[in-house]
Amino acid sequence: MVVAYDGTDFHGWQRQRDMRTVQETLETVTRRVARHNVQIIGSGRTDAGVHAAGQVANFFTDRDLPINALFRAIGSRLPKDVTLVRLFEAPPAFHATQSAVSKLYRYRVYAASSRPVEHHVQRYTHHFWLGVDLDAARAAARHFVGTHDFVAMASAGNQRETTVRTVHRCEVYRHHNEVRIDVEGSGFLYNQVRNMVGTILEVARGHWPPERVGQILVGKDRSAAGPTAPAHGLCLQWVRYNLPACRDQSPRPLRSAEGCPDQPDAAGNAPCESAT
Prior knowledge:
By secondary structure, this protein is an alpha+beta fold. Helices cover about 20% and strands about 25% of the residues.
């Protein structure tokens, strides 16, 4: 299942006691439709306040229901801040987390003196009052590309066995009043992308030179990096999988150009190769 949600009123993806989470919401609805206990496995955990345009999840069921009927039954019962974008039958060995090849997060910075409420994007962008030097920001972003120890970009609470990660690309560009930062990687540490964004913005406003980023990574000191950017500017755009074609019979509703995530590439649009 490919799911989109507004993370504003969720306490993140992962199920937590007495907290409204995306995983718990999906499990409650899917369990009601499948009529048996269901565990939803997500491609990754998004933090409280973080959004998703293409979160991928999977579950197992022995109910012999047509895909189209299952799509409508689950989708129609979800709350208004969650939507089921696509649904398809995956190979038995598919695991939303372990089968993922890469994922792309987009951070939206509203870089203007007026508030983002003017364009009704205050829930999805970080308002940055200070000027942004795009060339400096791009130079800083290039230091993140490659395989590095990202411990300096991991917030307290990271519990991964290794802090080495690979970032395939980190691109900074302007879209009207927004400065957008796209980060694609094979996997991320706790708050890694938000800490990368906070560090890039320190360079973009002229506080640090771009080469400071490389020094921070080598120094492996979180306190030397920039602040953690607010959660509401971050969105999981898509997750890529290299799998054979899957039986996909679910409707594909049209989405506006502004709300639709970028496609990974021309070959990445097959149901199981990428989820957008």
